[in-house]
Amino acid sequence: MTTALEVPLDSKVLEGLPQPPTITLQSPKDYIIDPRENIVINCEAKGKPHPSFSWTRNGSHFDLDKDPKVTMKPSSGTLVIDISGEKAEAYEGVYQCTARNEHGTAVSNDIVIRQSRSPLWSKERIEPVVVQLGVSLILQCRPPAGLPPPIIFWMDPFFQRLPQNARVSQALNGDLYFSNVQMEDTRSDYICYARFPHTQTIQQKQPITVKVLDNSPAGQRRPSFMTPKGTNSVATVLRGETLELECIADGLPTPDMSWNKEKGDLPSGRFSFHNFQKTLRVTEVTEADSGDYRCTAKNSQGLAHHVITVMVKAAPYWVGAPRNLILAPRESGILTCHVGGNPKPTITWSVNGVPIESDPSRKVEDDTVILSDVQTGSSAVYQCNASNEFGYLLANAFVNVLAEPPRVLTPPNKLYQVIANNPALLDCAFFGSPIPKITWYKDQQTSILNSDPYVLHINGTLEIHAAQPLHSGKYTCVATNYLASKENHVRLEVKEPTRILKQPEYNVVQRNSKAVFECKVKHDPTLTPIMSWLKDNEEFVIESESLTISHVTEADEGTYTCIMNTTLDQDSASAVLTVVGTLEHSLNPLSSCKQPDPPTDLELTDQRERSVQLTWTPGDEHNSPIQKFLVQYEDSLHQEEAWVNMTEVPGTKTTVHLDLSPYVYYSFRVLALNDVGFSDPSLPSKQYRTNPAKPDENPSEVEGFGIKPNNLVISWKLNGLQSNGPGLQYKVSWKQKDVDQEWITETVANTSQFVVSDTPTFSAYEIKVQAENDYGTGPTPEVVVGYSGEDLPSAAPDSVQVEALNDTLAEVRWEPVHLSAVRGRLQGYKLYYWRERSLHKEDSQPEEAQVLVFGENKTDGRLPGLHPYSLYSLDMRVFNGKGEGPPSARQQFETPEGGKGGMTRFKGNGLNKNDMENVMLRPPSVFLVNTTSELGPMEEIILSPNETVLTVSNLKYSTRYKFYLSASTVKGSGPTVTEEGVTIMDEGEFVLAVYYYVMGYYMDYVMFFFLSLSLSISGCACAAMPSRQLDIATQGWFIGLMCAIALLILVLLIVCFIKRNKGGKYPVKEKEDAHQDPEIQPMKEDDGTFGEYSDTEDHKPLKGSRTPSNGTVKKDDSDDSLVDYGEGGDGQFNEDGSFIGQYSGKKEKDTAEGNESSEAPSPVNAMNSFV
């Protein structure tokens, strides 16, 4: 067997070499022509001798001589059909070109010629469209069928595109869709245009009028699909083409559209959304793009879904097209026609355009033709035709039977010159049949050069990766087949690289002085050097290693670069010249500090295989010394425009030695740092390329783990720059631990993991990953141990037993699960337990399950925090990294009754028939609790467990009581809590309410309560006021304050009385004369009494007074009370308990609002108000 060999057609080298025809140019299979232009059908071919051409039309021979309108170009098969005065339709049909010479016949594809068409729109009368506001609407376009199909768009009569948005948009078929119409959609110029691309003509549909009414508008509604209809549809697309899926929905408000692929993601980098998310477009479709695609329309009223099932079919496509063969007589060969397609294509073979016939020298097996023992003169062109319902492929491949001795096409004694450490490529182009074997020799040696550092390529080229001076010499390539041998000689010279040994230095000179730059260079003596200088990248001619500038001025400032060129390489270095003026001119005031200027003049010296020296010139410091330099590099070979921090250099140095990695295209830049910050980066250095080498190290962080029960994922960290050369790959090896088997190895590239399938569940594997590239393998890798994937445990813990240790604690014991049933890394046990019900309350509900986790080595554990006297259930499960196993058999247990109960809250409230008052004790208090043992008689009350409030009647009013309360179960009594309460006075019975709250989980076990009451001796017999501010009114300091105020008012009244008797008048008399209130009696001046103040209010007793003037208490006779000054309106107590606004309180306000006398309040009334 042999492979294809391309036959060169260089007439000077291979003149007279025969070759069957090969089609080099042909028109497309589907050829749409412009009827206004001549028809040109291309067919070009090559061969030796040059082939002749013929055509068939619609399967029959096309006689060109009979049609003067048809001509064929000279030395070509291209047809030119003149259609002037003719109709192009007359030449429509299927054409095929044939190219033949004495060595075979090649045929072209079937070329279908069709004339482009742009028919006119049929005349039609379009009635106006009248719709209600909010409904959906479709305006149809339906253009005439053209060839090719027209491009549709909607515009107005002035050729302005109609506005489109998420609500109004054009569908793929050209129709205009409205998800809901609005009043602004009313217009009379909806025009659909169709543009036919071949003829560049535009056809127009009659304008459509749309009128939107709002007398019966549509309400808001959830989305529904206008196209496609229903909830499911099917779409078919061909491989390699563009898939367009469309969903348009109506709805109010306008729906939002979204897309997703079920059971997968949309193809990354190949999908896009168009037409306001209504169209999903996927380019370059592959078989993986088949599946269900869901479009979702959503608005505030709901959502709708539609699933489009995409089926990807494929016209035939090449997996491997047949290739030409050159065979020597009696050789064998294979022609293969590898194609793909869906459905699977049918393959047929022809030879020289005729269906192949049986022949002992060739055998057809589906997509393969096997040739054996070929003979001189059996050259031919074979045709492979692969077809299915979506198209066909046709390929020509010739078999040229030749017997040709070797020929070396490379010129003899060719000289190759390279610089050391660079690749050297020595050519040996050849031809012969059979294919010659190429061998290389150096100088007079007899050994074949086919090992490191030499690489022999299939085309005969000999490569030396990193040439060294010792590789210089004479090389001989020999081409050999059974007919003859042919040799050719070439020479290789490896030269020393050009290096600048002394770089020009940074120069600061004064004006009118002299500046000198020197550039010492070393180069290969056999190469002709040319020195040149640049100023700011502009060249001037100075062929010397020294540059002198006399009488410098500011115009001479800049960057000076010396460049040493040879015929093979060059090197360069730069320095900056700064010109300063006089001393006075140079002593400038200090400017404000800022970040430094970027370094300049980056130079690479001492260039070696794995290192280089970088030198630079600092920029202006701007009055802040440079602290350090940051060196960064860019690798343009692997990650262009990504700068990576490499090293830091003290601010006092401007040179650094850099260690490098192989196979990196380095560029360096430097940043300077002072107290203000980093400078801008310097300009990049000249690129420095290091030579490839085999990897120095293997990947790191190698580990093995499973993500499925039957696989093992081997992962590692990519090496990055440690690849050291092209063709980086990873040799992944694994074998099951403690099993006698060989290492299994796979080689992968461009990935950081490898998945091993069909592994036992959670088995240990030995793993190693070794790096390799085109230059060799890395060191021996370290073996690590990983585990295949886990599965859910298959068994539950055995012999689960539970025992209640007390009323709130239980102990659980179990037998561990066998490791084989864990099926993974045992992580522990989970105990699920829940309270089914209380044994005290029959109607209690089960509680939510709780979980306790125990370690993998535990076989017992405790359940704390249980409820006493309850029924519990539990089960236990083992778990690993995958999850939990099945539960064990459910166990139930009961907790005993609880211990001594306790109270959580307890308070006493005084009751005044329908009024409840909280008793709040804050010092100082009027009621003093007796701190001695002189308590009143103890009374005991037993309560049922479900009571939480007790009302005690027939108590003494305005008296303090002390209560004792405890809870008890069969285990005994709990702690006693105490509280104090005060009764209040009323005309009804005297009662006291006691509230108590029992701690939650003891409530079920309370059997009885002890309630003890003891009489507390009060320190004062003052009455308790029926005010909601009882905590104020019952305080001693407050009562004392009120008594003081009353005494003060009494003194004021006495003083007023004395003044009145002396003849003084009160302003109230004048008001009385003005108002003439009938209830006010005139004052009797002769007896000195105050008749005008004998208002009935003077004799109204204050509510709650124990000693009224008439000896009786009339309830509600007065609306003046402490409530009015305490809680009510404007009456306020300040922080020390004093009363604020006693003359401007609620009483005064109410009096004014009630249209009563506007006189000042009676002093007697005022006094009564505060007593």
UniProtKB/TrEMBL annotation:
Regions of compositional bias (Basic and acidic residues) in chain numbering: 1068-1087
Membrane-crossing segments per the record: 1038-1058
Residue intervals of the Ig-like domain: 21-108, 119-209, 223-311, 316-400, 406-493, 497-578
Keyword Transmembrane helix: yes
Entry membrane topology: Single-pass type I membrane protein
Gene3D superfamilies: Immunoglobulins (2.60.40.10)
Boundaries of every Fibronectin type-III domain copy: 598-693, 695-791, 796-898
Skewed-composition ranges (Polar residues): 1154-1171
GO CC, alphabetical: axon; plasma membrane
Pfam families to which the protein is assigned, alphabetical: Bravo_FIGEY, fn3, I-set, Ig_3
Coiled coil location: none
UniProt record, GO biological process: axon guidance; brain development
InterPro entries: FN3_dom, FN3_sf, Ig-like_dom, Ig-like_dom_sf, Ig-like_fold, Ig/MHC_CS, Ig_I-set, Ig_sub
Extent of the signal sequence: none
Compartment(s) of residence: Cell membrane
Superkingdom of the source species: Eukaryota
UniProt KW keywords: Cell adhesion, Cell membrane, Disulfide bond, Glycoprotein, Immunoglobulin domain, Membrane, Repeat, Signal, Transmembrane, Transmembrane helix
Signal listed as a keyword: yes
GO molecular function: cell-cell adhesion mediator activity
Alphabetical list of SUPFAM superfamilies matching this protein: Fibronectin type III (SSF49265), Immunoglobulin (SSF48726)
Stretches for region Disordered: 684-704, 884-903, 1068-1171
PANTHER family referenced in this protein's UniProt entry, alphabetically: NEURONAL CELL ADHESION MOLECULE, PROTEIN SIDEKICK
UniProt family annotation: Belongs to the immunoglobulin superfamily. L1/neurofascin/NgCAM family.
Descriptive protein name: Neuronal cell adhesion molecule a
Gene name of the record: nrcama
